[in-house]
Amino acid sequence: MNRVVITGLGVISPLGNDISTFWNNMIQGKSGVGPITQFDTSDFVVKIAAEVKDFNPLDFINKKETRRMDRFVQFAVAAARMALENAGLDMSKVDAERVGTYIGSGIGGLATLEEQHKVLLNRGPRRVSPFFVPMMIANMASGIVSIQVGAKGPSSAAISACATGTHSVGDAFKILQRGDADVMIAGGTEATILPMAVAGFSAMGALSTRNDEPEKASRPFDRDRNGFVMGEGAGILVMETLEHAQKRGANIIAEVAGYGMTADAYHLTSPAPEGEGAKRCMEQAIKDAGMKAEDFDYINAHGTSTDYNDKFETMAIKGAFKEHAYKLAVSSTKSMTGHLLGAAGGIEAIVAALSIKNQLVPPTINLENPDPDCDLDYVPGEARKMRVRAALSNSLGFGGHNATIALKEYLET
């Protein structure tokens, strides 16, 4: 099987719209959460989110095409272009039929759905846009990126709620590993800071209502957490077979080592007791990598800042790593970015890769009063310079979907 490496990264996020700004803000422990500006929240219980700021799609896409793309697709195209540039990959100099796209979205074009539903009700069916369906469907990020960059290889899209981004990266890894492509552009994208989504998640009691202190609202593993904070953005990785990367002299950021995916088969929204499904998922990724639990130094946790997730993910880590669990650095970068839903796994795979590349682990901010049930080393408050040989990134989604990828330091031998 082929070895697979990461050679390019692209990000649109609440912490910045380029890799350098994003990483620097994360390492400094900055929060991307603030009052919602995209719609009037007067009647809403929840008034905060982690919005993407200063994003201009015209920096990446022409005006005519922009009007035919939902915001989640615009994010994906922008992040994909940045990732290709970061990888130094010129599509005119590679076999386009061996370059694929695997970019998922948990929800897809909800903004388009909201807008066109209003058109239907107020102006009638004849006024609904002919672009409504192709702008809304969740696979379109992967499809449009392939069109925009000319990638003619394997193209698909995972849709597994909050596990989407990690499933996309993991599935793309397997495509490369078995030799069905030389390059994959993979990750997740989401743009759902919208009245319907905020109202829906709020009705579930899933969102934090700490409206008076937005920057402190996302507080994974903290005793006083009261829900997640919705985020938006895209995280896209360029992944290649090692042979292809070496032939073109690519800069290698990290190696993709393993992938696990399991189902809780338990509940619509709640994780399985004691994180049983997440535990098996991490064990699968470690086994797939041909590694041992003791080989890992860092976990980018799913860490949503919800009661059950944080408690059960902690139990899952203990179950998978046994006594080594207490030697791991575990952080939830959702404390800063909010929860990007289907894009979370893409963003967090990027964080794991950069942690290995820079030997630096980002913090969990707002962890002021640790939950007694959450007793691991969550890197509270400040980033930590440390040895990171290998890292896991976890994503756990509604419906009981679990996904974990294992990354490691790239060594030539």
TrEMBL record:
GO biological process annotation, one example: fatty acid biosynthetic process
Swiss-Prot/TrEMBL catalytic activity: (9Z)-hexadecenoyl-[ACP] + malonyl-[ACP] + H(+) = 3-oxo-(11Z)-octadecenoyl-[ACP] + holo-[ACP] + CO2; a fatty acyl-[ACP] + malonyl-[ACP] + H(+) = a 3-oxoacyl-[ACP] + holo-[ACP] + CO2
Top-level taxon of origin: Bacteria
GO molecular function: 3-oxoacyl-[acyl-carrier-protein] synthase activity
Active-site feature positions: 162
Pathway assignment: Lipid metabolism; fatty acid biosynthesis
Gene Ontology, cellular component aspect: cytosol
Keywords, ordered alphabetically: Acyltransferase, Fatty acid biosynthesis, Fatty acid metabolism, Lipid biosynthesis, Lipid metabolism, Transferase
EC number(s) from the headed UniProt entry: 2.3.1.179
InterPro entries documented for this protein: 3-oxoacyl-ACP_synth-2, Beta-ketoacyl_synthase, Ketoacyl_synth_AS, Ketoacyl_synth_C, Ketoacyl_synth_N, PKS_Beta-ketoAc_synthase_dom, Thiolase-like
SMART domains: PKS_KS (SM00825)
Stretches assigned to the Ketosynthase family 3 (KS3) domain: 1-409
Family the UniProt entry places it in: Belongs to the thiolase-like superfamily. Beta-ketoacyl-ACP synthases family.
Described function: Involved in the type II fatty acid elongation cycle. Catalyzes the elongation of a wide range of acyl-ACP by the addition of two carbons from malonyl-ACP to an acyl acceptor. Can efficiently catalyze the conversion of palmitoleoyl-ACP (cis-hexadec-9-enoyl-ACP) to cis-vaccenoyl-ACP (cis-octadec-11-enoyl-ACP), an essential step in the thermal regulation of fatty acid composition.
Name of this protein: 3-oxoacyl-[acyl-carrier-protein] synthase 2
Lineage of origin: Bacteria, Bacillati, Bacillota, Bacilli, Bacillales
